[in-house]
Amino acid sequence: MARGSAYPSEARIFHDAGTGARIRQVTDQPSIHHHPFFFVPAYDDAMARLIFVSHRSGRPEIHAEDRATGKILQMTERAGLAEYSVYPSHDGRWVYYTAGTGGYRVCTETLREEQLLDFGDVRLREDGMVADAMGTTALSCDDRYWALRFSQAGRANLVIIDTTSGAHNVILQADTIAHLIFCPDDSDLLYYAGSLTDRVWIIGRDGSGNRRVYQRQSGEWITHEVWIPGRRELAFVDWNKGIRAIQVDTGAERRVTSFNAWHAVCDPSGRLMVADTNFPDIGIQLFDPRDGKGAPLTLCHPEATNEGAHWAGPFPYENGPIAVYAPQHTHPHPSFSPDSRRVVYTSDRTGTAQVYEVEIPTDTIERLYDGAG
Fold first, then answer.
1. How many CB atoms lie within 10 A of CB 31?
2. CA–CA separation, 140 and 89 (whole Å)
3. Cβ-based neighbour number of residue 58 at 10 Å
4. Of all helices (H) and strands (E), which one includes residue 370?
5. Cys-Cys with 296: which of 111, 198, 206, 285 at CB 3.0–4.6 Å?
6. In the chain, pLDDT over 70 holds for what percent of residues?
């Protein structure tokens, strides 16, 4: 199956048996499908396209659903595509990704591919299934800067690429760099994950101000960090005790919620947060990240297999990395649409991972907003 291959809509509608939420199954082909990682938008800001990865050709390739027609288009034909490196631009013009040792983007209109950088003899992601093995990348909210990591000679490197000029600069070398995220309020500020025992770091886009913003305590499992828009706060999962947040300028800490939120992210306004859950899986939850309580409301039940038995116990990385079996396409990884009216997620409930989109009932949004502090 080649770049430019088109398929008719595969969508079907059903309702969640527990909540009654209206769910649209986007893909329905017997191979692995998933949307980008949970803190990466799956849509352009205008919601013209829903971007996802499909293995229907026998290997991961980027696909797009045209939301006006429902038709599906294969956008890439690139061996070695790193499926969790995918990042759609906010203006809808490009989708950025890495493959092999190169950084690329593909035009959503013409499918013309551009190579922005060839790294040569490097590793763009590490071995395994989590953290720096995923090879996630980051795009600033103005689409001007693309951040990604590579390792060379045993050191991780953080490189910033100017998407307009093509200029690039390595701004940091460290033992571990993973899960890059630009601050939604400041394109000159990034979060990155350090080692599994020392996760929460920020750095200026020019390499200045590199610092730890949270000092992990022994036994804590700190993970899945995201920005809260409009507050310059980093929220992080304190597994499985809930979510906390830290204001990166003042260091002020607060509690966001106290249920077993797993992968959690805010909507663009910073007024809603969504999370999947595990051990136990109580479904996808919506809550207010601002009121200090974060009382959750169940949106739907993805029924994903949620592979990763290590999540059932205490922090397993105290003495260094361990091998885990946690295929990411078995995790829901919920993420908001730009209009905050939908949540996209992945589930392998049918036996193969497919992409789903669930509508948020208006009364649910109103209940959460009314309860805001």
1. 15
2. 9
3. 8
4. helix 362-370
5. 285
6. 97
In angstroms, rounded to a whole number, what is the distance separating the alpha carbons of residues 144 and 167?
11
CA distance 322 to 338: 36
Does the CA dihedral 226-228-234-235 come out positive or negative?
negative
- Average pLDDT over every residue of 132-161: 92
Q: CA 232 to CA 68: how far, in whole Å?
A: 35
Residue 134 CA to residue 34 CA, distance in Å, equals: 14
Model confidence at 43, pLDDT cuts 50, 70, 90, reads: very high
Give the Cα separation of 89 and 94 in Å (integer). 5
Spatial contact of 160 and 147, defined as CB atoms under 8 Å apart:
yes
Q: Are 24 and 357 in contact (CB under 8 A)?
A: yes
Quote the tokens at residue 297. Answer: 């409301």
Cβ neighbors of 334 (< 8 A, separation 6 or more) are 38, 263, 265, 274, 275, 276, 284, 343, 344, 345
What pLDDT is recorded for position 263? 98
Residue pair 235/248 in contact by the 8 Å Cβ criterion: no
The residue-averaged pLDDT of 156-178 equals 96
Closest CA to 199 of 182, 233, 175: 175
pLDDT of 130 reads 67
Give pLDDT, residue 365: 85
Q: What is the pTM of this model?
A: 0.96
- How many Cβ atoms from other residues are within 10 Å of residue 87's Cβ? 26
78 or 122, which is more confident?
78
